[in-house]
Specification:
single chain, 9-stranded mixed β-sheet, two-stranded antiparallel sheet, alpha/beta, globular, 237 residues
C-alpha cells in the first residue's frame, strides 16, 4: 500500500507511553510504538512527533490543583521532554535517526526548535520529536501539535488515543455511544467534544489541516491511517 501523506505529525499522549503501569514509561510499550513509527518511515513518509507529559505531570490535573497555573504548565512541559528523550532512545535502538527539538532551550539535552532546521531534518529522513509543547503556559500539547504541523507544512495530524475514534459521548462511560467516521471542524466545536481541545481544532480549521483520530492500542494502526485505510475518525472541512 502506498502512503497518501508525504509528511505527517503524530501526536502521542504521555499515557500512551506509560502502558499498563499508568505512570512513567513502560519500556516494552515505547519500543512497540517505535517499531510502528519505523514501519511508517520505511514507506517513505516524513514523520514528526509531539509527545504529551500526562504520564508524569499534567498542568490541569488534580495534582496541580493548588499550584500556580504557569508553574504547573512549565512542569508539564518538562515532563514532555523526559518522554521525548525516552522515545528518541527507543527509535534509535530501531535504527531510526532521530532529533529532539525543545521549545524551551536546554542545549545539553535537545536542540532548540528552529523551523527551517526541523524541516531539513525531515527532508534528510530523520524523525523529529517536538518537546516542551509551545514553550508557553495555557496551551496544551494538542495545540502544540497543531502549531508545529502548520510550521512544518504537514499533510495531516495523526492523533493516537486510547479509544477507536471520536464518539458523541465517552465510550468508556456510555455503552451505546456512536462513533463518527467523519466530522467537520465546526460540528466538532459545536458538540464540545473533548478528544482534542478546541484551540487545536480551531487552528486546524483555519488552515484546513485534516486530523485523523485513532486507537494506538491496535497494532499497525499508524500505518493503516497513513496508507488511507478506514481507521478511526477524520476531522476535516
Amino acid at each position: 500500500m502506498q502512503p497518501i501523506f508525504k509528511r505527517v505529525l503524530l501526536k502521542l499522549s504521555g499515557e500512551a507511553l506509560a502502558g499498563k503501569q499508568h505512570f512513567g514509561v513502560e519500556t516494552s510499550r515505547i519500543h512497540q510504538i517505535a517499531e510502528e513509527i519505523k514501519e511508517v518511515q520505511a514507506l517513505g513518509v516524513e514523520i514528526a512527533i509531539v509527545v504529551g507529559g500526562g504520564n508524569f505531570f499534567r498542568g490541569v490535573a488534580e495534582q496541580a490543583r493548588d499550584m500556580d497555573r504557569v508553574s504547573a504548565d512549565h512542569m508539564g512541559m518538562l515532563a514532555t521532554v523526559i518522554n521525548a528523550l525516552a522515545l528518541q532512545d527507543a527509535l534509535e535502538k530501531q535504527g531510526v535517526d532521530t532529533r529532539v527539538m525543545s521549545a524551551i532551550e536546554m542545549n545539553q539535552v535537545a536542540e532548540p526548535f528552529i523551523r527551517r532546521r526541523a524541516i531539513r531534518h525531515l527532508e534528510k529522513g530523520r524523525a523529529v520529536i517536538f518537546a516542551a509543547g509551545t514553550g508557553s503556559p495555557y496551551f496544551s500539547t494538542d495545540t502544540a501539535a497543531s502549531l508545529r504541523a502548520m510550521e512544518i507544512k504537514a499533510d495531516a495530524i495523526l492523533k493516537a488515543t486510547q479509544v477507536d475514534g471520536i464518539y458523541d459521548a465517552d465510550p468508556r462511560l456510555v455503552k451505546d455511544a456512536t462513533m463518527f467516521d467523519k466530522i467537520t471542524y465546526l460540528e466538532f466545536l459545536k458538540r464540545g467534544l473533548k478528544v482534542m481541545d478546541s484551540t487545536a481544532i480551531s487552528l486546524c480549521r483555519d488552515n484546513n489541516l485534516p486530523v485523523a483520530i485513532f486507537n494506538l492500542n491496535v497494532r499497525g494502526n499508524i500505518r493503516r491511517v497513513v496508507t488511507g485505510e478506514r481507521v478511526g475518525s477524520l476531522v476535516g472541512a
